[in-house]
Amino acid sequence: MSAIDLARAEIRALKPYSSARMEASGGSVLLNANESPWPSVMGGTGALNRYPDPQPAELIRRLATLYGVAPEQVLVGRGSDEAIDLLVRAFCRAGQDAVVISPPTFGMYSVSAGIQDAAIIDVPLRADFSLDVDGLLARLTARVKLVFVCSPNNPTGNLVPLAMIEELAAALTDRALVVVDEAYIEFAGTPSATTLLARHDNVVVLRTLSKAHALAAARVGTLIAHAEIVALLRRILPAYPLPAPCVEAALAALTQPALTATQVRVASLLSARALLAEVLKTYTGVREVFPSSANFLLVRCTGARNVYDRLLAAGVVVRDVSHHAALADCLRISVGSDEDHRRLLAALGRREEAA
Where does residue 163 rank: exposed (0-12), middle (13-18), buried (19+ CB within 10 A)? Predict the structure, then answer.
């Protein structure tokens, strides 16, 4: 048995839609897609009157190089959200199959499962926010097809050790996919779970250009898995997932000068994260600043909602995550610019007197 056998039988048998750009290529007279023969009256760069390539070859090649995998292991789409949705639709039969999540964690896992009518099995993180592997395996049933692991986790900011992910993947061989969401891995400085692909065909890794590469508005996400899984998901991927301007932005961000600049910016952000964490600890009402391997800090305050409202009144927007049972009185604060931090700290108010 291989991991692809876990997918829905009807998806494995599905004949995908063949878009115009998937048809015979190399022609210069394009009369097969009912496109306008004239460029857009809006001007701008690129031939926006033509449909884009569903999986742009050069973008796939550069992403494969960036992540150290083969091009056939790469699927690109509209952020990690689309990859999550594709996985749930491909592997979970409505009303029959299930996913496992470990709250508090990224909310789109449960939203996508709910849309597909897949059951959601919650295995909460331990008190120190570590993954409860034993508890997770104890709750596993034959219905479970996907286990979502966010590392670094959003909103807690902690890493799941690679050895723990591999332990989970080994235990779930022929039983379920382990989907490792690494949206924030660039800020952690640790190896990716892509290093597990050679040994475990049930590992899927999600990456994004939204965070470290500063392309949140372009919505370019990458799913990395064994080629058979990528090929399966391409069957249900929308015909033209990425607009041409987004592809152009991604290609520009993946040139060597841009990648070098990104490394410098990430290093600068890590320094700013450490400084902000230390300064926040000195403010009245801040009870705890949790360690973070991401580009944000989880902060426990006295009266988090009141603090949130006070910051908002000063024009500073943070994330109130106190609705999670394990995160009472917690706010998630993104690491921003020096000016962002100045305004944040000014709105927070008094600092504790030095001892």
Answer: exposed
The secondary structure of 180-230 as a DSSP string is EE-TTGGGTTS--GGGGTTT-TTEEEEEESSSTT--GGG--EEEE--HHHH
267-314 pLDDT per residue, tens: 999 999 999 999 999 999 999 999 999 999 999 999 999 999 999 999
pLDDT in tens, 71-99: 999 999 999 999 999 999 999 999 999 99
Q: pTM for this one?
A: 0.93
- Helix extents (H) in the chain: 9-12, 57-67, 79-91, 108-116, 133-139, 162-171, 227-234, 244-253, 256-280, 304-313, 338-348
Written as six digits, the tokens of 27 are: 């022609």
Which of 187, 282, 241, 179 has its CA nearest to residue 21? 241
- Measured from the Cβ of residue 25, the count of other Cβ atoms closer than 10 Å reads 7
Pairing label, strands 286-289, 296-301 = antiparallel
Q: Nearest CA to 327 among 294, 353, 355, 305?
A: 305
- pLDDT confidence of residue 355: 37
- Is 310 exposed, middle or buried (CB count within 10 Å of its CB: 0-12, 13-18, 19+)? middle
354: pLDDT strictly greater than 50: no
SS3 146: strand
Q: How many CA atoms lie within 13 A of 133 on its CB side?
A: 14
CATH of the structural domain 258-348, one choice from 2.30.30.100, 3.40.50.720, 3.90.1150.10, 3.40.190.10: 3.90.1150.10
Domain ranges of the chain: 3-254, 258-348
Specify the CATH class of 3-254 in words: alpha beta
Mean pLDDT of all residues belonging to the chain? 93
Supply the pLDDT for residue 20: 76
Q: By three-state DSSP, how is residue 98 classified?
A: strand
